[in-house]
Amino acid sequence: MRDTDHRTSKSDPNTRENASSGTHVNLDTTALFARASRNSERVIVPLNEGASQSDNRLPAFYCVHSASGVVGADFSQLALRLQSTIRFYGIQAPPKQITEPQFGESVESIAEHYTQALVKFQPSGPLVLGGYCLGAVIALAMAENLRARGREVGPLIAIDGVPENTGIALRRWSPHYWLELFRNLPGWMYHGDLMRSRTLRSLVWSLTNNAHAIGRRLMGLRRGQTLGGGYAIDGIMDVSNYPPEHRSFINRIFAAMFAYIPPRYPGEIVVYEAKITPLLYLPLIGRTWRRFASQSEIVGIVGTHINMLREPYVDTLASDLSNRLAKFFATRPER
After folding, report:
1. What pTM was computed for the model?
2. Which domain covers residue 249, as residue numbers?
3. For tag attachment on the chain, is the N or C end more exposed, with fewer CB atoms within 10 Å?
4. DSSP code per residue over 195-222
5. pLDDT in tens, 20-44
6. Alpha carbons within 13 A on the beta-carbon side of 198
7. 61 within a domain of the structure (yes/no)
8. What CATH number has the domain bearing residue 67?
9. Which residues are CB-neighbours of 110 under 8 A, at least 6 positions away?
């Protein structure tokens, strides 16, 4: 999860805040369909033509939602660019489960729920999982679960997300840390979400958010940690557009991420890291993965946490991901 520089307007009823990044996106048809029924227990959602038609000639890729629990809006542009080469499935939080107060209380429990659904959906063959932001942490837990079941798991695809509790100390107040923030400034000026949107609302929210973030750190609090104890996402993103029960789910899974202590992962991990960081926060995602999982490969994507999945930045990610999955499945005919 990252501190973000962009808020959405409440005037458009078809607009939702991207819970993992803070950007506003118009919900496409797929996203609306995935959430059409509040009683739906659906977890696996096809997000491109190849997946909708169940074209088994194409390899399948399963990508876990961000903190919002919704998949269509986050992944629509990436899935579209992969539709001729990959069946792209989103792993969503089923609308019926979101309203249950126990759902999402721990990363392990939500990963178990999704793993059960995935095994039922694809009973055999190798599996390639990924996740965006917080979803990368859930995908990691799912990969561990699947490996324990004896399933073959391909490279784990982590899109700009990393576990918080890896036991790896990162010196966020060192001179080198601030030097990297300074080097980030030119890229932020050109590619940053706030600079691209240039709205008064975005400016006010960004200044307020950064001030709060600095204040929390000066008091020794972690990002998202509240003075009264526990964690809440409200200071990182605007969740006011979501119904109360959905806001509760978002905060539950956000808090669960900070409580989750992952085991060392022996498998291959491909980390897509946004090269443009927020103005006053350096996530250090690639470095953390590399020290936590020895087989991590870091791929830098020009763009921010928000817009790396949007035009024009998403093309680089789509091309690299397509090539990697093609190589993995080339020697594995069963899909």
Report:
1. 0.79
2. 15-330
3. C
4. HHH--HHHHHHHHHHHHHHHHHHHTTPP
5. 333 333 334 444 444 446 778 999 9
6. 4
7. yes
8. 3.40.50.1820
9. 93, 103, 104, 138, 253, 256
